[in-house]
Design a protein that fits this description.
The protein is of the alpha+beta class and about 425 residues long. It is about 45% helix and about 25% strand. The protein has 8 helices and 11 strands. The strands form 2 sheets. Strands 1, 2, 3, 5, 6, 7 and 9 form a 7-stranded mixed beta sheet that branches. Strands 4-8-11-10 form a 4-stranded antiparallel beta sheet, with helices on one face.
Length: about 425
Amino acid sequence: MAAVLIYGLCLLFLTAQEAFAKRICTPQDVLDYLNLTRNNEKFTTCRPVLDWTHPTVVYLDVYLSAIISVIEKSQIFVSYLWMSVTWSNELISWNPDDFCGITQVSVPREMLWKPDLSINELTEKENGPPSPYLSVTHKGEVTMEENMRLHTICTMDVHKFPFDIQSCQITILSIIHSNSEIKLIAASNSSKVTQNSREFLLSQGEWELLGMTVAEENVTYFDSSTWDFIKYTISVRRMPLLYILNFQLPVLFLLVLDLASFLIPDTKGEKLSFKVTVLLAISVLLLILNDILPSKSDQSPLMATYVIFIFAFMLLSLLETILVTYLIELDLASEKQVNGKRKQGSDGCTSSGVNSSSESVMELGAAGATADLRLLQLILEQLQALRKNLPKDALKTHGRDSHWSQVAKRINAAFFVFYFCFIFLFLILISLEWIG
């Protein structure tokens, strides 16, 4: 009889062990155990704590996944952010051994309370495909992840455009709950956030991510309550190659052409027209620059200073060319006047000399033309008379420049030296300011 009883107990133990081994569990069993349903306001209306004096600790992680654009005109930073929020729900817990080792379940977002986190600088938010679930562990840790496109306000400093570095801030805080109810803590430090952002970064556009810094701060309102907030500072640098090739180099090439125009002779009108054409080309580039630079800035952009100074140099060069041309025209006018007088004097002297010579030759012929010495003496006297009647300017050599032409050449040479030295110094100084 005892043997039969022992055999029955062994058979029962083996049957129970086999039934336990074949047991099948589902996440729904965990939800049924917790009584976690859509209509249960216990999990959705209030902060999930057993003692209301205990604050809910919220761990926040933010990574930059893409830089879409930086709109300088409206000072808007457009980016994609991946945000992970983790907090503890004291109303949820279970033993994994009772549910076949299940340690984590996923529930719809609307079934649990969530912290009211907001971005202070946000102007527009476009959610990507949102995750419809929250992840819940057996210890009550709830994780919410979200990928979103943000338009945030960013104060622009375009003084060194296009070699500028912009720093945009994203401040995350709770609007309703103070730090006595919600304590915000950054889950990752600055180096980890920067490293993960560079790994997750999909697109940078014309910008390069330099780094991200994380700072935990708080602020007190109404002298009573204090709110925690986490400030993420994103530092990005513009890639300047496109602006150098499309804007800065063309302006520099026009400046070189203006310097080369000093080799064009001043006596021709091509030099003046050439300088006017170069000046008009700079004016067109100024209109393009007006569309590129933002309308508001604390300091004048170096790019605007660069173009305006070069425009002023070319304008000064054009005025110098006008002055030189005017002086040369004065010389041409005086030369025409001198040539007219010379022609009149030469005609009078020539006619009188021919008449006198013919009369002398007739007298010599009448006398028999016996004295050759007397004839030579008469020719010398006639040449001296012609020299006295010629204008003083007629004795100058034709190869020598007149007074105003010499003044114009000196002005042109001095201005070219000044122009070249000043432009060279200006380019060095503005390059040091851009790079420094």
